[in-house]
């Protein structure tokens, strides 16, 4: 009886700074650990093992040659682990070329890795089945319209070729080497906010940043001050504004500086209020236009992966678990007596957190969650075990980012052991 291990979305490879594997040591240890398991086992990497889209200076099988040259220890470990248990990978969107060129089958087989060039693969677990896919077919921007056709690339291919790979080429030029992490920002709609955050906290001239800081920190106070002025002018209540004037007057020079900051902010607020309405109309029209061309996701509260899983469960009564990746959000959910599993990513992840004070940009907290699932049959049931490879979170936030934001709580806690009893 086979036991299955699942990981996904490693995104190994790409131009320049994208070459770095921040979890390489942990991946090698994980593969070495699998060599020692005393069971009939298969490791399935369900998509985006490699970042082939992110290679722009190489074509065809030259990309695979580059992978071999850059990561010799990893491929030797794949060969060693693959001699003890089956290692299977399926194409994702970022390594879609694996589905389009048969040469990859033989090249990977030489390293004891089995490539199945299919959108979906299925595995028996006891009397039940596992339905396994990458998940890009439920993403309209990354859906492969003619799977296996090397020329049928989705919109996401062109985005990565022109933006993600370029970020890898340019990342080393920054004050800090941060731009390469653009592939870790999900969903893509957060990228503009992430760029603004990194410009302010990392790339902006420090003198300019700290000159602007008092105005940004006092912005909310200025809004409150404007409200007090309005209720004073309208005669509703004048006491609060008198108290504020008295307090600022007692602070001397400091009070005068605070009063100046508030006055400047009030001028800015007034200007923003004047342009807000026409600006809103233009921004809304631009977003509508971008959505019409498929360049911006439209709000949709439906979950296409749950919809897909439910359709699979209806059509295939023996399927106990629907397994996918792609979104980089590890999760375990139940639908009646079945399971929907997202295998997550081993890339760095970012959690956006609003600043506690003022009008400062969002802080993106980095973290790692090197997740894997183990699935086996036991006494007529399907047992799903979840575990993580230990890796400390990066300590790369600036002092200012740590001061103005609070580290977010970890999302989506997953039980160590779940039983699917059908």
TrEMBL record:
Transmembrane segments: 210-231, 251-283
InterPro entries, per the entry: Calcineurin-like_PHP, LpxH-like, Metallo-depent_PP-like
Domain Calcineurin-like phosphoesterase: residue ranges: 5-153
Example GO molecular function: metal ion binding
UniProt keyword list: Cell inner membrane, Cell membrane, Manganese, Membrane, Metal-binding, Transmembrane, Transmembrane helix
Keyword Cell membrane included in the entry's annotation: yes
PANTHER family in the cross-refs: UDP-2,3-DIACYLGLUCOSAMINE HYDROLASE-RELATED
Name of the protein: Metallophosphoesterase
